[in-house]
Design brief:
The protein is of the alpha+beta class and about 130 residues long. The chain has helices at about 15-25, 25-30, 110-130, and strands at about 5-10, 35, 45-50, 60-65, 70-80, 80-90, 95-105. It has a 7-stranded antiparallel sheet. The protein is globular and about 40 Å long. The termini are far apart. Belongs to the AHA1 family. It holds the Pfam family AHSA1.
Length: about 130
């Protein structure tokens, strides 16, 4: 069975704010990476970070699904690994439950482990961003 990153988060923010943080390029840059994202199915975009010795800092992506404000999905292609990121949002009494599935890993590789740890760190940054809104 192929490994998948599956994480659940709870934010004390309305679903509209969480959706905005997932789909607004400027806000996305504050908790993920610089990007040229647009919430339009078929839009090709990049996430860009500072390159390192083992990574060029570029994630090539294409928007696959936009179902405002409940579901967003895009490809995540970097370092020769092609995966898919899917966010699912549920509103609950003014708060938002956010589920992440990052699928398509061939094995529990450096890419998989980096994604698992990276998303947890980025979710902490998302929580800080949402508290400021």
């Amino acid at each position: 069975m192929k490994p998948e990153v599956k994480l659940d988060f709870q934010f004390d923010s309305p679903i509209e704010k969480v959706w905005l943080a997932l789909t607004d390029s400027n806000m996305l840059a504050k908790w993920v990476m610089d990007n040229d994202f647009k919430p339009v199915v078929g839009h090709h975009f990049q996430f860009r970070a500072k390159p390192s010795k083992v990574w060029d800092g570029i994630v090539e992506s294409e928007v696959l699904v936009v179902e405002e404000p409940h579901r967003l999905s895009y490809t995540w292609v970097t370092a020769g690994v092609s995966t898919v990121v899917t966010w699912t949002l549920h509103s609950s009494n003014g708060a938002t439950r956010l589920h992440l599935e990052h699928t398509g890993f061939e094995s529990e590789s450096l890419s998989y482990n980096g994604a698992r740890l990276g998303w947890v760190k980025m979710a902490d940054q998302l929580e800080e961003l949402l508290a400021e809104l």
